[in-house]
Amino acid sequence: LPEDFDWRENGAVTPVKNQGSCGSCWSFSTTGALEGANFLATGKLVSLSEQQLVDCDHECDPEEPGSCDSGCNGGLMNSAFEYTLKAGGLMREEDYPYTGTDRGTCKFDESKIAAKVANFSVVSLDEDQIAANLVKNGPLAVAINAVFMQTYIKGVSCPYICSKRLDHGVLLVGYGSAGYAPVRMKDKPYWIIKNSWGENWGEDGFYKICRGRNVCGVDSMVSTVAAVNTNSQ
Amino acid sequence: ISTATFSAEGSEVDPFIRQVTDGHDGAEPQLLTAEHHFSLFKSRFKKSYGSQEEHDYRFKVFQDNLRRAARHQKLDPSASHGVTQFSDLTPREFRRTYLGLRRLRLPKDATEAPILPTDN
């Protein structure tokens, strides 16, 4: 594995988006992962529609029927991948733009599908496996506890104590080997996370969190997705 | 470790943003009060409130969040914590409005990614 890796430098990451006052982080995490996978499959970086997921995806957890993807009220990336697989794919952002509300009806147009899911799977808790899947398959959909993100400005976040109760969906786009931790007087390896709170939050919309001990549960729910190569169709 | 500092009035102020004014030779750098921070916050993030009551309530929440940011800074010294666009929201409002991950229960039949080689 390379010591440092960043999909932003390799063209697989779209500009930072903003979910607005809507609990739709799960849809941004989902589109981010599929945007990366679609880039790897087709060589084209296409921004995909979160609003399609917000309006049309009501996929439920098979183990818990009452727990379904529900627009601004929350959802789960794995369920969203399942929806995308069943629906046939996701439209482009420009064809189905984000509104930040879930009061609209589903306007999915099958003829405008821009990216398709081939398959998706969960990655084991092992940090080397997470890194390997990131490098091989593209950005990964991950869940995290966001309590420290409310006040985060910059730097490598490495709280001594952080709950592992997952409450936020984000996108893992890379890792670094040497984020300086002044108090601990040593370099700390870190994950690079793309968030969906706009470019004015964090480090131009990104968050760095230290690697090594499942901080804030960042290693707990990691999903990788593969896209269909639509060029060959 | 940076720690929270207090103004003469006893109100906690953000330890990470300090206003340094020029043209006052010999003067101590002026620490901002919570009121100043709130004013800067409203201007920076274009915040306005419908009533004085709402404004006062948001100011109280903002002060709580300054203290929270200082606590986070102590717990997370390798990052910088301070005023963000969410500084006028209670933790509950923040969770309700900007988070949205459903309670997780991975299905037993979820496909697991194959183990990849990580050496070389």
Secondary-structure map with pairings?
The complex is a heterodimer of chains A (233) and B (120).
Chain A: E1 5-6, H1 25-42, H2 50-56, E2 60-61, E3 64-68, H3 77-87, E4 90-91, E5 113-115, E6 117-123, H4 127-137, E7 140-144, E8 152-157, E9 168-181, E10 186-194, E11 206-210, E12 222-227
Parallel strand pairs in A: 8-11
Antiparallel strand pairs in A: 1-9, 2-3, 4-5, 6-12, 7-9, 7-12, 9-10, 10-11
Helix pairs in contact in A: 1-2, 1-3
Chain B: E1 5-6, E2 12-13, H1 34-44, H2 52-75, E3 79-81, H3 91-98
Antiparallel strand pairs in B: 1-2
Structure in a nutshell:
The complex is a heterodimer of chains A (233) and B (120). Chain A is of the alpha+beta class. Chain A is built from four helices and twelve strands, in the order βααββαβββαββββββ.
- Rounded mean pLDDT of chain A is 93
Written as H for each helix and E for each strand, in order along the chain, the element string of chain B is EEHHEH
The spatial strand order of the largest sheet of chain B comes to: 1-2
What kind of assembly state do the chains in view correspond to?
Answer: heterodimer
Which pair of protein chains has the largest interface, and what are the residue counts? Answer: A-B, 71 and 44 residues
Shape of chain B: elongated
Number of strands of chain A: 12
Largest sheet of chain B: 2 strands, antiparallel
Radius of gyration based on Cα positions of chain A: 17 Å
Low-confidence residue ranges of chain B = 1-15, 18-30
Count, helices of chain A = 4
Q: State the helical fraction of chain B.
A: 25-40%
What does this structure look like?
- The complex is a heterodimer of chains A (233) and B (120).
- Chain A is of the alpha+beta class and 233 residues long.
- Chain A is built from four helices and twelve strands.
- In chain A, strands 1, 6, 7, 8, 9, 10, 11 and 12 form an eight-stranded mixed sheet that branches. A two-stranded antiparallel ribbon of chain A has the order 2-3. In chain A, strands 4-5 form a two-stranded antiparallel sheet.
- In chain A, a hairpin with a 4-residue loop joins strand 9 (168-181) and strand 10.
- In chain A, helix 1 crosses helix 3.
- The longest helix of chain A is centred in the first third of the chain and has 18 residues, at 25-42.
- The radius of gyration of chain A is 17 Å and the shape is globular.
- Chain B is mainly α and 120 residues long.
- In chain B, 36% of the residues lie in helices and 6% in strands.
- Chain B has three helices and three strands, in the order ββααβα.
- Chain B has a two-stranded antiparallel ribbon with strand order 1-2.
- In chain B, strand 1 and strand 2 form a beta hairpin.
- Mean pLDDT of chain B is 78; it is low at 1-15 and 18-30.
- The chains are: A alpha+beta (233), B mainly alpha (120).
